[in-house]
Each structure stands twice: as structure tokens, then as C-alpha cells.
Structure to design on (184 residues):
């Protein structure tokens, strides 16, 4: 962890690199060009657990596929998104947030530049090996396959109140699915 060794940071911001983290990082091309990206189903649920505790902001460096990312992140999930080159991310975070209060999840070669500056860093299981080596936490899940959801639960457990699905289910009311939840 960057900052003060041995001291638990007070985390307020979760910055998510979209491509390779929130989606698989694969770009599907046709004769028309880049048309599709693959996003997983669980990450939105994980973010819903964390959004009341942290400011969540997403970044992408993919100019050609930015409209695809915007459709998923801004229009469907309702999170802020900015187009920011990997090389500009530390300066971008500094301008918007306090680095010592920020978590960053990334997967690429250059994301280690950000990892070394923020309070806490996370990499998905399929991140570039240098990113995994430098990260404070590496998920078991791959990007686009639940890595963000896993990171959210990890952050809840490590820095906030531990995540408990059974308490959450009983607190949400009488939805049909709560009838099947084992009471603790």
C-alpha cells in the first residue's frame, strides 16, 4: 500500500479502468470496425454494494470504443466516465481526488504507474503480470467475469463492514428470493 505503512487508509474513491477490468478487454471487430465489447453481469451488483461508501468513477483510454463503453457505464449503470490515457491517470486522479484516499483497479502494463501512487491497488486475475506483481490485491476473477464485483466485496471486507449476503437479504424486505435465504 502506498502512503503510510501499517496505517489503514481512509478510502473514499474507487477508480476503475474499464477495458480489461469491467469488460474482458477484447475488442470485437467487423468490416465496420470496433463494434462490441464484452461486459460481465455481476460487476454492476458489486458496485451497488459499494456505491454508498465510496465515490465510483470509471476511466477508459479507448477512443475508438468510447461510445460502446459510455453506453454501458453511463447510460446503463449510471456511473461517471472519462476518457483518460493511462499515462495521464495519476495527474487526472490528483486533479479530481486525493491519491491517499483512492483505490485504483487496472490490468495493463502501465497501470503500475498508478498503483504506486494511490492508497490501494487491485488487479484482475488476467492482468498483465507486472500489474499483478505490484497490486495490493489480485482478484481470483478475470476482467469482465466478476473481477470488479470481487474487488467491491474485498474492499467492503477489508476497509468497511464485512459483506454478509444473509444480512443483506433479510434487510431488503420480502422479495421472492429472500424466502430461500438461510437465516443466520
Amino acid at each position: 500500500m502506498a502512503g503510510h505503512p501499517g496505517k489503514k487508509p481512509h478510502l473514499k474513491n474507487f477508480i476503475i479502468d474499464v477495458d480489461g477490468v469491467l469488460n474482458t478487454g477484447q475488442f470485437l471487430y467487423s468490416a465496420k470496425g470496433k463494434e462490441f465489447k464484452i461486459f460481465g453481469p455481476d460487476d454492476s451488483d458489486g458496485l451497488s454494494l459499494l456505491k454508498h461508501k465510496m465515490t465510483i468513477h470509471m476511466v477508459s483510454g479507448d477512443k475508438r470504443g468510447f461510445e460502446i463503453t459510455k453506453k454501458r457505464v453511463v447510460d446503463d449503470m449510471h456511473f461517471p466516465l472519462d476518457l483518460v490515457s493511462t499515462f495521464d491517470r495519476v495527474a487526472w486522479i490528483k486533479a479530481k481526488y486525493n491519491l491517499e484516499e483512492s483505490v485504483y483497479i487496472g490490468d495493463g502494463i502501465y497501470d503500475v504507474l498508478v498503483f504506486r501512487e494511490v492508497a490501494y491497488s487491485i488487479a484482475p486475475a488476467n492482468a498483465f503480470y507486472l500489474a499483478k506483481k505490484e497490486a495490493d490485491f489480485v482478484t481470483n476473477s478475470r476482467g469482465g467475469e466478476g473481477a470488479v464485483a470481487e474487488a467491491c466485496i474485498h474492499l467492503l471486507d477489508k476497509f468497511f463492514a464485512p459483506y454478509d449476503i444473509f444480512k443483506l437479504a433479510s434487510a431488503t424486505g420480502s422479495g421472492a428470493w429472500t424466502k430461500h435465504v438461510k437465516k443466520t
In short: Residues 13-180 form a domain with the Rossmann fold fold (CATH 3.40.50.1000).
